[in-house]
Amino acid sequence: MEILMEHGAGGEKMFQFLREFVLKELWSSGEVGLDEMEDSGIIDGIVFTTDSYTVKPIFFPGGDIGRLSVSGTVNDLSVMGASPIALSLSLVIEEGFSIEDVSRVMRSVRETCLEAEVPVITGDTKVVERGGVDSLIVNTSGIGKRSEYLDRNFQVVKEYTGRVYKWPLDSNLSPGDKIIISGNIGDHGASILSERYDLSRIESDVAPLNNLVEKCLKIGGIVAMKDPTRGGVAGVLNEWSQKSKTGILIKEENLPIREEVKGTCELLGIDPLEIGNEGKIIIGVVEEMADSVLEEIRKNKYGKNAEIIGEVSSDVKGVVMETVVGGKRVIPPPIGDPVPRIC
After folding, report:
1. How far is CA 35 from the centre of its chain?
2. What pLDDT band is residue 61 in, cutting at 50, 70 and 90?
3. What is the pLDDT of residues 317-326, one digit of tens each?
4. Could you tell me which of 144, 241, 301, 336 has the fewest CB atoms within 10 Å of its CB?
5. Cβ–Cβ < 8 Å for 301, 258
6. CB of 237 within 8 A of CB of 94?
7. Count of alpha carbons within 13 Å of 147, Cβ hemisphere only?
8. What is the pTM for the complete model shown?
9. Given pLDDT bands bounded at 50, 70 and 90, which one contains residue 143?
10. Which distant-in-sequence residues (6+ apart) come within 8 Å of 199 by Cβ?
């Protein structure tokens, strides 16, 4: 058996590969460990995450591998209810890669760190022979501490529902909870496609969202959060449905998506629900606080197009979308990301 691209693409094949060949060989511990397959792990109250970035091309409309690596790690910490406090940065560089391009990526890293107010405090550099890697691979790891607003957030959840949680996990959803997306879907995946195939320029949404998340937690009522990267919105919603053991019903008419993204996806035969985003968060929130959280998101420059796209429902199985013509169609979990190497 050989490794396939699908084994790292964020869909069902990747999760199956991890369960059968990776996780069972490892030892894990902590409040949230490997078995939960969350965006970060938690041990002794410390939230920790790591990610490697192989995006192709490394420069794309609206960003580059540097901004992507910082944003991705900051967001993975944030959706766990953590305030990011520090990052590591490691580079694996192909011999012959342009030093000027390395400097360009490092400037992007610096600018994104300053925006997020999260510093890089350690790192590593390796150079490999030509062909050993494709240009440049970046790894970022991050640590975070429990948000000062997380306890208050869960107090609000308890007041309205009686449910008690400690961290915003995929398994926390219950019927009646509303599902919010913080903005237009598919921008990052479509941006990579537009650059690869010389289509109409579409800017990536890549951005650090820790400030937005903190303000939402301050409002309260959030039970789950996830950034829909590999596997897209369809991947996150199916993961939530499976882990929470309940159905999710979304409305097509409420999905915010740019016409140019729609057009690119239609041209290439790709479902925009399955392609990655790097500056969006999907939030599960108790019904009573959904409008207040939505209003707060829309105040942020990265959340102006936020929408309530559906709700958790015991009336459906899995993830179901109510179409604009009144029908319903099942949204299956993606097998893999239809756009490889988007992050």
Report:
1. 19
2. very high
3. 999 999 999 8
4. 301
5. no
6. no
7. 28
8. 0.96
9. very high
10. 193, 264, 267
The torsion angles phi and psi of 62, rounded to 5 degrees, stand at 90, -5
- Ramachandran category for residue 144: left, alpha or beta (phi over 0 → left; psi -120 to 50 → alpha): beta
φ and ψ of 208, to 5 deg: -80, 135
CB-based burial of residue 85 (10 Å sphere; 0-12 exposed, 13-18 middle, 19+ buried)? middle
Residue 283 DSSP SS3: strand
177: tokens are 């909870």
Can you read off the two tokens belonging to residue 35? 């078995």
Is 239 in a helix, a strand, or coil? helix
pLDDT in tens, 103-112: 999 999 999 9
Residue among 342, 109, 86, 94 nearest 231 (CA): 342
**Contacts (Cβ under 8 Å, ≥6 apart) of 322:** 249, 250, 251, 252, 328
Write down how long the chain is: 343
How far apart CA 302 and CA 238 sit, in angstroms, is 24
Domains annotated for the chain, with CATH where assigned, are 39-146 (3.30.1330.10), 150-330 (3.90.650.10)
Torsion over CA: 183, 186, 188, 190 (sign): negative
Q: Evaluate whether 46 touches 33 at the Cβ level (below 8 Å).
A: no
Query: In this predicted structure, what is the pLDDT of residue 94?
Result: 98
Nearest to 55 by CA among 76, 36, 69, 40: 69
Would you call 247 helix, strand, or coil by DSSP? strand
Q: Among 81, 88, 79, 75, which residue's Cα sits nearest to residue 45?
A: 81
Dist. CA 277–CA 303, nearest whole Å = 13
**Amino acid code (one letter) for 111:** E
